[in-house]
Amino acid sequence: MVLTGTFDGPVALYLASVATLLAGLAAQWTLVRRQSPRKGEAAPEPVVLPAPFSGRWTALNSPATKVPSHTHSHAQTYAIDVLRSGPDAAPEPPFTWLWPPVRRPERYPSFGEPLSAPAAGTVVMAEDRCRDHLTRMSLPGLVLLVLEGFARSQGASRHLLGNHVTLDLGDGVYAVLAHLRRGSLRVGVGDRVAAGQQLGECGNSGNSSHPHLHYQLMDGPDVRTARGLPFAWRYRDVAGAERTGVPANTEEFTPEAPTDRPTDDPAG
């Protein structure tokens, strides 16, 4: 069949949808290329910082297992996701194939966990308006998450990161804590914060399957133009051994508390 004349109705809608999809894929490809590590350039030394949380957690999508751990776009080359776990945390609801397709985020132990500044710095971005949506921990939910993720990647950074804080730690290092709980932020743009000062709480906003913290370092303040930086934490594994580095996928660990952890007053 040969289409002639002007395109209208379903045909026009179909062509517009295809054009939008192709434009989105091209934009995403361009972003990945622009934010990938420069060819032939060695990765910088990891920045050693305290982890921005306490208690036992589990690592997912870790750069210790694969680089890029997520994707090069949005400075996520060395990003990590972590979940609250361990004997002192409530059990996390299991993944389901069909039912229930979604759950409320309050059912998950990470939701509401306090998150702190890994080092002294200045808040350069603070978003607190995004809702904490229902989880996507089922087969239908994951399909929805993939479609959502593509759509979110075409919009503003907050659509991917959800509620988040970006800190300027000095020396060209910026930290991002993402998927925070709506209404939990205790800081705003321009605030000076101290190492260990509480910033907000873990939530399920943005491009998130279920409550967890997304953490990354980068070399600029804007996730759309910066490149990711490697980091290292001091922590203990489940056997109690002290380590400096990044826990691998599914590894449980307990971060070392900062020795100079102050009160919530950055001047104190």
Automatic annotation (TrEMBL):
Residues 258-268 have a biased composition (Basic and acidic residues). SUPFAM superfamilies: Duplicated hybrid motif. It holds the Pfam family Peptidase_M23. The keyword Transmembrane applies. The chain crosses the membrane at residues 12-32. Residues 244-268 are annotated as: Disordered. Residues 152-218 form the M23ase beta-sheet core domain. Keywords: Membrane, Transmembrane, Transmembrane helix. PANTHER family: MUREIN HYDROLASE ACTIVATOR ENVC, PEPTIDASE-RELATED. This is M23 family metallopeptidase. It comes from Streptomyces spiramenti.
